[in-house]
Design brief:
The complex is a heterodimer of chains A (105) and B (341). By secondary structure, chain A is an alpha+beta fold. Helix content of chain A is 16%, strand content 19%. Chain B is 61% helix and 2% strand. Classes of the chains: A alpha+beta (105), B mainly alpha (341). Chains A and B meet through strand 2 and helix 1 of A and helix 4, helix 7 and helix 13 of B.
Chain lengths: 105, 341
């Protein structure tokens, strides 16, 4: 249900704008995207999100964000965008040789 | 699936959005094929064949339409549910169906469909909904039979869709399936209570099962082989990872699960040819009369016109609510602009 945030994020031609919904399932977890809905304003979006995505106590906190406000990376530039991380394997602890018998490292 | 993706044999296709197969779109489909080959998930902004996109929009929309039309046969009994407990349960179930419709419309929108267009396609009959909702709900026992059989068949159809190749549809289906299992159990409980009640109640339960059994089996669509075999889009949908199992395979799975449950209920299914086949380790069952299904799909079912007319009326009568919400949103927005200034 993740709507294409940069593509068709404008209000439906004859409808209400689209909102993306994020739910914190319980304390200690971050908000996660669960889907989207249409609503005329933020307040109604929150109420609709409560009815639509937390009918069974799935959350303790809700965010609604206008889909048009989200900027996303482009799938076409996926390689160029994420490649710089590929050759920096020294960022991972497994890169380093540690002599046997050294603990807690 | 509720959004059963097939047409009657002699019926011209009313939807313009017919899949055109794995047509080249001018885009490079290497990544798309790679995703399918590795059982990965396609996400909204990935390059995909036009036929894949159109097939999904049609199927998901049809599924969404089915969910919201499906509110009617059960909504019909909310006011007459036999106890406050049953009333509360039925209201929760009907509300779930609305929710399922909304998850699915949102999934279709990730493919570029417009919500208003989809509703219009439903209201004008250009897109369809599951034929099962064109049967009437005559007694309270029908609430039990719908939950147990119709939702049961829907679950068998829908569980594989949780692994559908299109990410947003698969994720929507995970939510739907979680909620459906309450639907099926409450239906079973209604029938169990009736079946073990008075003689008249038992008869009412049996009558409902008699009426809903064959339509439930037809929910899986035509046979995959023989004359009916070409009506679905099974082969292409399988190749695209939209459909995971053939109609007949899922139907058999449903029968094998359901017959032992009917024994626990003390009810029978109206099929003289039904018997256990020790060799196949499955139940054999009688021939399904698909002429009836195709008539219902074509709009000649008992409730086709009523369901659609009610849906259109509900949409029109809700117009003032949408207008009021719009006016309020505009007023608030103007107010906050003034405050900032």
């Amino acid at each position: 249900m993740a709507h294409d945030p940069t593509g068709d994020a404008t209000p439906g031609r004859r409808g209400w704008p689209l909102w993306e919904v994020f739910v914190r399932a319980r304390r200690g977890l971050s908000h996660a995207h669960v889907g989207s809905l249409h609503a005329p304003d933020a307040e109604m979006a929150l109420r609709n999100a409560r009815d639509l995505y937390t009918r069974r106590q799935e959350g303790v906190s809700l965010w609604v964000v206008p889909a048009s406000s989200i900027t996303a990376s482009s799938p076409d530039e996926k390689d160029a965008f994420f490649d710089p991380a590929a050759d920096k394997i020294y960022r991972h602890p497994t890169f380093y040789d540690i002599p046997e018998g050294v603990d807690h490292l | 699936m509720y959004g059963n993706d097939f047409t009657a044999p002699d019926e011209p296709t009313r939807d313009q959005d017919q899949p055109t197969g794995d047509q080249p779109t001018g885009d490079d489909l290497t990544q798309f094929r790679q995703i399918l080959d590795t059982d990965g998930r396609v996400e909204p902004r990935d390059v995909m064949p036009e036929g894949y996109r159109k097939t999904l929009i049609r199927q998901i929309a049809q599924h969404a339409h089915s969910e919201i039309i499906g509110m009617q046969p059960e909504g019909n009994w909310i006011g007459r549910a036999p106890s406050l407990r049953r009333k509360a349960i039925l209201m929760a179930k009907v509300q779930d169906e609305a929710g399922h419709g909304l998850y699915l419309y949102a999934a279709a929108e990730t493919l570029g469909a417009d919500r208003a267009d989809l509703l219009e396609a439903l209201h004008t009959g250009r897109q369809k909904y599951s034929s099962i909702f064109n049967y009437p709900t005559l007694t309270w026992a029908d609430m039990g039979a719908i939950g147990w059989l119709v939702d049961g068949a829907a679950i068998v159809n829908q569980v594989p869709l949780c692994r559908c190749s299109y990410g947003p549809y698969a994720r929507a289906m995970v939510r739907v399936c979680k909620e459906e299992s309450f639907h099926q159990r409450q239906g079973f409980e209604i029938l169990y209570a009736l079946s073990n009640g008075s003689e008249a109640q038992h008869e009412m339960a049996q009558d409902a099962v008699n009426r809903w059994w064959w339509p439930s089996l037809m929910m899986f669509g035509p046979r995959d082989t023989g004359a009916d075999g070409s009506q679905g889009h099974t082969e292409q949908s399988m190749a695209w990872g939209i459909k995971r199992f053939a109609n007949d395979e899922l139907r058999q799975r449903f029968v094998d699960m359901t017959i032992p449950q009917s024994e626990s209920l003390g009810l029978t299914v109206p099929d003289p040819d039904l018997r256990w086949n020790g060799e196949r380790v499955s139940y054999d069952f009688g021939e399904i009369d698909f002429t009836e299904l195709f008539e219902v799909i074509k709009g000649n079912g008992p409730c086709n016109q009523q369901r659609l007319a009610h849906r259109v009326r509900a949409h029109q009568e809700g117009g003032w609510v949408r207008e009021a919400a719009d006016a309020y949103a505009r007023k608030r927005s103007a107010l906050s602009t003034t405050e900032v200034a």
